[in-house]
């Protein structure tokens, strides 16, 4: 398969979608990002790498980081985690509060903000220096030590974190947050502010496409069964209230972030990542969604 040609063609065609979405502005530092940027990277398990456009420009991975924190916690806690977080699509926006009261402070899934906050809270209980542990984990799965937090974005989100603070306090009232809420929000804002390019992310997702085995250092990060579960959660919940639509259009497990990144993979085969900061009304990259749909359609391959 000539992936170079496939992504080159998609890039030229989908560029015309510029201007249809809107850059996230509820985190002021994200509102300053130049909207008309677009990159695609493909990384195969066999070691071939392809890219087009702004694939080496770093951006804020935001909710894509929830995959890394979940992997870190799953490998230590195993099924214990599922007592505190569900695994059903929520059908609600990523930062919604509505289901939490009915469901006694147990978030629907680990990818909506409430669920990700519980995961990060457990991570804080597992590691003395959680921020260091997260960045070290990402560096190791990426096979690249040159990955950092964007402190300015972390700070900006921290200053406007009312909703995430509310979610965390509310869950704490049900006993589902164990650590100090202010510290939790600080760690969470940092993990969302990890700065990576499409190329970095396409490498960092390889262990998921590889049944939990990190191809860079041969470490089995997740068991085969845990990797299956993470993929299933991405397929069903990775795009919030647009998860069904993403599965329908792209047919892949994947995860989006409000920085405009999307990472998805074909198990046993490849990772594809897209970045374009303009978002649709669900908070997913408009161009990212379109690109992934065209990619699996053009190559005639998905998980189905
Ligand atoms: N940091 C963002 C938030 O908590 C992440 C949301 C996202 O990328 N969907 O609101």
Describe this structure in words.
With 304 residues, the chain is of the alpha+beta class. The protein has a single domain, classed as Beta-lactamase (3-Layer(aba) Sandwich). Helix content is 46%, strand content 12%. The chain is built from 14 helices and ten strands. The chain has helices at residues 3-14, 28-31, 65-77, 98-102, 113-126, 130-142, 151-159, 162-173, 181-192, 198-204, 206-209, 224-237, 243-250, 286-299; strands spanning 22-23, 39-44, 49-53, 59-60, 148-149, 194-196, 254-256, 261-266, 270-275, 278-279. The protein has a five-stranded antiparallel sheet, with helices on both faces. Strands 4-6-5 form a three-stranded antiparallel sheet. A two-stranded antiparallel sheet has the order 1-10. It is globular and about 55 Å long. The two termini are 18 Å apart. The mean pLDDT is 97. Residues 62-63, 94-95, 113, 157, 164, 192, 257-258, 283 line the site of glutamine. The site of glutamine (GLN) has 11 residues, from loops.
Question: In summary, what is this structure?
Answer:
With 304 residues, this protein is of the alpha+beta class.
User: What is the CA-CA span between the terminal residues?
Assistant: 18 Å
Overall radius of gyration: 18 Å
CATH top level assignment: Alpha Beta
**What structural class do you assign from the helix and strand content?**
alpha+beta
Task: Supply the number of structural domains.
Answer: 1
Lateral strand order in the biggest sheet: 3-2-9-8-7
The largest sheet is: 5 strands, antiparallel
- Strands, count: 10
